[in-house]
Amino acid sequence: MSKTKGDSSAEGLIPERRTLPALRAAAADCRACDLWKLGTQTVFGEGPRRAEVLFVGEQPGNEEDLTGKPFVGPAGRLFDAALTEAGIDRTRVYVTNVVKHFKWEPRGKRRIHKKPNAHEIAACRPWLRAEIALIKPKVIVALGATAAQALLGPKFRVTKERGKFLESEFAPYVMATVHPSSILRAPDDETRREERRKFVDDLKKLARMIGK
């Protein structure tokens, strides 16, 4: 089943019998917005069905688009290392993105990330809602402004509320922090080390929360 031109939400693609494999299979054919024309494939979330923690990023990057797996590129590797340092086992968390296709623009031979717009985020939101409803995490961690605003509203500012555990309709707690890609974009090594340290500190707060 495919979305026809003019449709603006993935809602009609959500299967009646909701399992992670069923959602993943249905999302593979999603054409709710035009990003399917840019992406190699849908990159759906991955992780255990009963994960206590669900991490949400903005969208897949170049390596994720090519492999079909979330958080496997440079930012994903930094994310893995930070989780390990904070004492969190990645195999026990669920990772996904607000938008499931890679949005990019050419720069020479490279494909450069381009921020998804409000229409693309809204079109893809039913997939994220279905993932959250199925997994029922104790904590959702929004990585970056796009994920945080998709969950907590357009006025939410990560810079003001970073690292706080907030109530939400989606889970008992939602916490926002930076996306690991922002650490990689830091202007120099010293800033990068400091931003990484603060990111790990946020994850350590998370580890204490889920350890209660």
List the helices and strands and how they pair.
Blueprint: H1 20-27, E1 53-57, H2 62-67, H3 74-86, E2 94-97, E3 104-107, E4 110-113, H4 118-135, E5 139-143, H5 145-152, H6 158-161, E6 173-177, H7 180-184, H8 189-211
Parallel strand pairs: 1-2, 1-5, 5-6
Antiparallel strand pairs: 3-4
Low-confidence stretches: 1-6
Mean pLDDT equals 95
Helix content: 40-55%
Order of helices and strands: HEHHEEEHEHHEHH
Number of domains: 1
Count of separate DSSP helical elements = 8
CATH homolog superfamily: Uracil-DNA glycosylase-like domain
How many beta-strand runs? 6
Q: Which fold does the CATH topology refer to? A: Uracil-DNA Glycosylase, subunit E
Protein structure class: alpha/beta
The outline comes out as globular
CATH architecture: 3-Layer(aba) Sandwich
Let me know the largest β-sheet: 4 strands, parallel
Instruction: Please state how the strands of the largest beta sheet are arranged side by side.
Output: 2-1-5-6
The CATH class is Alpha Beta
Based on CA atoms alone, the radius of gyration comes out at: 16 Å
Strand content: 5-15%
**Gap between N and C termini:** 44 Å
Quick take:
This protein is of the alpha/beta class and 212 residues long. It has helices at residues 20-27, 62-67, 74-86, 118-135, 145-152, 158-161, 180-184, 189-211; strands spanning 53-57, 94-97, 104-107, 110-113, 139-143, 173-177.
Properties at a glance:
212 residues, alpha/beta, Uracil-DNA Glycosylase, subunit E, 4-stranded parallel sheet, two-stranded antiparallel ribbon, globular, disordered N terminus
